[in-house]
Amino acid sequence: MQNKNNNNRKRGFTIIETMISVSLFLIIVMVGMGALLNADMLHNKSKSMRSIMDNLSFIMEDMSRNIRTGYNYRCYESGTWPGISQQSVFNTPQSCISGGVLVFEEAHGKNLLTTPPDTNATDQWIYKIESTDGGLTFDISKSVDGGVTWVQMNSDEVSLNGVSGFSVIGAEAGDNQQPFVTIKLVGNINLQNNIQTPFSLQTSVSQRQIDR
Which structural domain, as residue segments, surrounds residue 42? Predict the structure, then answer.
């Protein structure tokens, strides 16, 4: 009788017990892998989002710094931008409430010529918010040679909308107001899998030198 009990105690797992154990192990591994993949996806999304937000912050910083140290702000409201470059009219300050194009003289720009044509207009700096798909999305571009060449500032993942633009007050000389620019960038960040994240950035800049 004692030998029989010893043999029973030495018996291993049955096939059903083994299958149940393996199944439980596979379920735990699958749940763990799913959580790991989801965490990796969230990390990559966060990393991409941070890179894009850094790009937007750079755009705002670039515009704020250059506009603050510039002068002779000329703002064009939607539909009034002539779409041409190297014009002496760029030297004439002009305010606007809701503009898509901002022209100004950079801090180290050449002195203005009083007799037209003003060849020094070619060194005007321009920021332009423009659509290339009929108004569905907008991009912001920069020119440092009076509009001859342009560089897109926002990354391809960023699409601005029509709310974005510039507001300029006190640009005209002799109006007793210090030139003041408000920059607004509104749009969506388009990540993989058609995930869209809205954003809205706004800042205000006052001309550093005293307006004459």
Answer: 33-206
Instruction: Give the span between the Cα atoms of 118 and 90, in whole angstroms.
Output: 10
Cβ 105 vs Cβ 167: under 8 Å: no
Residue 121's contacts (CB-CB under 8 Å, 6 or more residues apart) are: 86, 87, 88, 89, 90, 91, 146
User: Count of CB atoms within 10 A of residue 181's CB?
Assistant: 27
Name the residue among 144, 148, 145, 142 with its Cα closest to residue 130: 142
Q: How many angstroms separate the CA atoms of 131 and 190, rounded? A: 17
157/51 Cα distance (integer angstroms): 11
Number of domains in the chain: 1
pLDDT tens, position by position, for the chain (212 residues)? 555 555 555 566 677 877 888 888 888 878 877 777 777 666 666 667 787 888 898 999 999 999 999 988 999 987 788 877 667 777 788 999 999 999 998 887 765 555 555 566 667 899 999 988 888 899 999 998 888 899 999 988 899 998 999 999 998 877 778 899 999 999 998 877 677 889 999 999 999 887 66
In a domain, 6, yes or no: no
Instruction: Identify any residues that bridge with 183 across adjacent strands, giving them in sequence order.
Output: 166, 203
